[in-house]
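Thread title: Can someone regenerate the structure for this chain?

I was given the following input by a collaborator and told the matching structure tokens would be attached. They weren't. Posting the sequence so someone can regenerate them.
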Amino acid sequence: MPSTSSGFAWALSLLFLLTTTVAVKAGDYTYTTNSDNTLTITGYTGTNGLVVIPSTIEGRTVAHIGYGAFGAFGCDENTWLTSIIIPDSVISIGGDAFYHCSMLTNAIIPDSVTSIGDEAFGDCHNLTSVRIPIRLTSIGSYVFDFNVSLTSITIPDSVTNVGFRAFGYCRGLVSVMIGRGVTSIAQKAFGGCSRLVGVYFMGNAPNIGSDVFDSDNNATVYCLPGTTGWGWTFGGRPAMQWWDGPQISANGMRGDISINRADTLKISVAMNADGHAGVPLDWWAIARANSSFYYLNSLGQWIQFDGNFSNCHPVLQTGLFNLPSVEVLNARGLQPGSYTFWFAIDYPMDGILNLGGYILLDSVNVTVE
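Best answer:
Regenerated them for you:
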């Protein structure tokens, strides 16, 4: 018969075994089982370029992507992984989940996701498009840090906080649309975004940390009439009122969308001149298809150029006027990947895209699966 002390030790060992989380492997994934019988993906050992995470594994729901599951040493330049599709069963993405996935170009994050951990997509140098889910309440620190290929971001109304250096050193970022729910933006959240031109706020001025636009020497902050808390400058950058002038939509939606390769993509533009009719301006329509750039010319043709904005040309040079919705692209069978479209006006009317001057723009991102 075991002694009391040895029986106690045996009981502790059994309790440890019952409460310890054990990683299990199924196919290319390792995972752990949560207390509610859902799964957390903890690792990926496959070599596919396109990864479609399953919504269930062995009959249980995949609800979480764990810390570093695809990131750090698990996703370097020798792996992959170029595109990731996360199922709508997932509600959280852990810190470092895709950190340093340097070949990742496209990430589809479903609206079911309410939490994204720090540095989840940090250092993803080739990530050109990411859609922030509409149920997310906060963007943590370094989440998209050093994503140098991102060109535009829309932060939905559900987000209330943007964390420290959340978009730091996104050197390709041109425009940011910030939803009306954002009440605080942490230090250096957009610091080092050297190509950032317009930061468009839909709501009142949020509380901001120091150097929120550090080194963003071309950026202008735009606020809507009727919102409060603004001055002549905001976060050290010029601030001015804007109106919803240039408007661009994809398949009738002004927000970012995802489509299948077999679907038809329709891009339309419209202009609200408001009280500015007659002001002489350059009008621009520009597209980025994966790594290639195009501008729309006056004949309605999309012309490829090298990505240097000095080598593209305006679609119109004329006084501002109200433009009803006009379709500028109707295409089907597009190659899978990321597409960004911009519609912009700038002053003066000189045929030069004045990123550092007075410019208003709207953009839409399209992911083709």
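The longest helix spans residues 4-19.
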